[in-house]
Amino acid sequence: MRFAKRLDQVPPYLFAELERKIAAKRREGVDVISLGIGDPDLPTPEPVIAALAEGARDPATHQYPTNHGSDDFRAAAAGFYRDRFGVELDPASEIVPALGGKEAVGHVALVLLDPGDAALSPDPGYPPYTSGPLFAGAEVHYLPLERQNAFQPDLDSIPAAVLAKANVLFLNYPNNPTGAVVPDGFFEMVVSFAREHEILVVHDNAYSETTYDGYVAPSFLATPGAKEVGVEVFSLSKGYNMTGWRCAAILGNAEAIQTYWRLKTNVDSGLFEAIQMAGVAALEGPGEPLARMNAIYTRRRDLVVSALREIGVDVPSPKGTIYVWAPVPEGHTSTSFCELVLEEAAVVISPGSMYGPSGEGFFRIALTAPDDRIEEAVERMREHLS
Ligand SMILES: Cc1ncc(COP(=O)(O)O)c(C=O)c1O
Hints:
Blueprint: H1 14-27, E1 33-34, H2 46-57, H3 71-85, E2 95-98, H4 101-112, E3 118-123, H5 128-135, E4 139-144, H6 160-165, E5 166-171, H7 186-197, E6 200-205, H8 226-229, E7 230-235, E8 248-252, H9 254-267, H10 273-284, H11 288-310, E9 323-327, H12 334-345, E10 347-348, E11 350-351, E12 362-366, H13 371-385
Parallel strand pairs: 1-10, 3-4, 3-5, 5-6, 6-7
Antiparallel strand pairs: 2-8, 7-8, 9-12, 11-12
Helix pairs in contact: 2-10, 3-10, 4-5, 4-9, 11-13
The structure holds pyridoxal-5'-phosphate (PLP).
Residues 38, 100-102, 126, 172, 176, 204, 206, 235, 237, 243, 248 line the site of pyridoxal-5'-phosphate.
């Protein structure tokens, strides 16, 4: 068999490799604690499950949904954006549901990029900001995110030759993997940058509802002028414990949204209507389940951060996301340290290098295991690595 060359350009999806290692250890009888993938361990809120059950029992949902999304889903997303972020959106032209944020990010790259174009992608960053453009035949220009710059990319450092062929800028705050929140004034700077260079901004808003210490994350679309230059991907996966449900929306610039929709009518048949009904229940539901979740993550974050500091790791305490991003101890690479932690402590953490070249020298811990497992993991790391 011969397979397309585009697949050779991307490494195997990083968590596929981690899952293989965990399975091998478990087969040996080792009690492995995985703090690798960021997949909320707590159940989806009950009213969301009830809405799905009710929707699934209604035969009207059993046929192909409209790819454009139900009126109710688009209205709920518009209402949520108005109330939560102060952003006005036209449900008819500026919102389309997506089968998860990952689908939207991957397909938006196909909508915006031709061979010879370039994508500007944060480094470290969520892997589809790289694989999406590569599958489109475009090149990726990495934008390093460094702690000394508050994990904000230096847009002034992008060479003119790259700017000339760049057609998309991916951003994501609160940020995976660094846990950083958007620096003051950065989104405003991005809007003028995008205008000047005619680049579409794709802000991946996967973690706005998962924040701590009183921090409230903004939408990129709340920035004056943002809708002229960008779209936002809003996922229900992390905030509402719905990773398995594949429920998200893409919102913002009408022309970009309608073009994305045109692509999608050719590659999928829309989001199951019962899931759209569940999405409505989540978006219109009370904020109480979110607050409860965030209190749990705050406790876990504090546990992990203080344990790492005790063993001498200089780590910032993130105000958002479900990740702690920390430098590896001296003498280690990202991979050698993560292998050591797996071998010595049977704890899975992800090497920063998996998120791009600037992730080398770091590791990421996901806070998505039950409290007692996080406590046990932290205890093992303290014992084996002190
Ligand atoms: C930045 C970012 N965007 C998108 C996603 C995926 O979201 P979804 O489950 O909606 O595809 C993730 C998941 O880890 C993420 O970290």
